[in-house]
């Protein structure tokens, strides 16, 4: 993993051991002295970590020592998580106080293949007798123009000396636009008169002039990141090259792994995560950022050079499996499969040595005839073997059900089972996952209901269920999830007066921290059209979508019209849409009329 990760994990352990909650745990279980000794030991370890991590590149013995120490630190972190989870479980059993508090294979005739590469060796092998064009970097004038656009907003510096130093700096970037932008982004925060020359002499001059010259230039910007940002950036090595990254999901993954440091301010961890992403984007670690209709950063990519850098700095703790033959080392904690899975055996073989995974990602999955013909039994492979998972992503894998044994993942923070059309129900044992922060069941089109004891998920912050068109109701107690920040769909039950596990629209009343988009379906089922979901109190909500589903069940047109009229959203709402035809929406065509509350 990235430099500084052990230092930060050790710091987090020390902070936990010093908290009142863990002092209480020590008293409850008679472990006060043992936890005190553990804190002293971890503090001693942390004191030498920074220096050791700097020396590991030059000293194999130090590197080996750090590798062994990494296992100890991770195990200690897992142990404390076990204590905290057990304490949480006991609190739930005695009144649930916490919940109350808070390349092309085909082409037309005349098609051509264009091969691009940064390697002269690859170019020599592939070109044969075909023309070969070597692209040059930007010349000095264009390099300077790009540099000053970032640092001086396009203006010339007043001091000739500053310009002279700046030109010397960009010469080191050998005309590579990405290198120029990243170095410029770094220097933007430094005093040109006092800090640029030392940077040129003490940083840039130390880089060896070899085949990795550009990578080393880029690493300068990485070296000046905070340790937390280094973790976040290195974690992106799990995504394949040219992969379109979902920004919101990326932030959820960072939070799940503990890479986001909570602030003393009123900001939520997701807000802090967005600040992390924005800073990395501003420094050109991300590019091609796309925004959604409401102006939020939605998707991004990484430049190939940046992907090379993240792979370089990630170290042995992160592995991306991109071939059937690859078997990861036992020290790996974060893994993703960048190849299409046609058999669960591929997972069993690839991860045969890794027993302490914290992340399992499948970024390349999707539906194909071959995969659909062979239903994957991924949970049967993962659940018995990897109990330390924080992130479990099995979206778009054609699984038919989530096993009840999923509750063995007591450390789990992020669970994604989205776009699995054969899933009809979720096991109620999911609600034993008291640490769960994100549950994504989006586009599970045949899913009929959510777990009835969902109120036990007291740390759940995001529930994604958009596209679950078979849902008949929301579970009673949903409104008790004080930590909930995202709820993408609420389904009004046809008759919520008879079933004790069915929640009414009033479940929304207390969920005033909801943000992003909320959709409500079956308003015609509301008796007499009288509703009070307290939309006025939801100031962070950006979008509200109402589905008119009069063609289904016993929805009443008068009730629906009255319900529409009684809605009074907060003035901060940016978008409100009334969807008239759900079938059209499901086929991929968005239609609707906008209304004002």
Automatic annotation (TrEMBL):
Residues 238-309 form the Disease resistance protein winged helix domain. Residues 383-578 form the Disease resistance R13L4/SHOC-2-like LRR domain. GO terms for biological process: defense response; response to other organism. Residues 13-93 form the Disease resistance N-terminal domain. It holds the Pfam family NB-ARC. Keywords: ATP-binding, Nucleotide-binding, Plant defense, Repeat. One of its GO terms (molecular function) is ADP binding. Signal peptide: none annotated. The keyword Glycosyltransferase does not apply. Residues 107-155 form the NB-ARC domain. This is NB-ARC domain-containing protein.
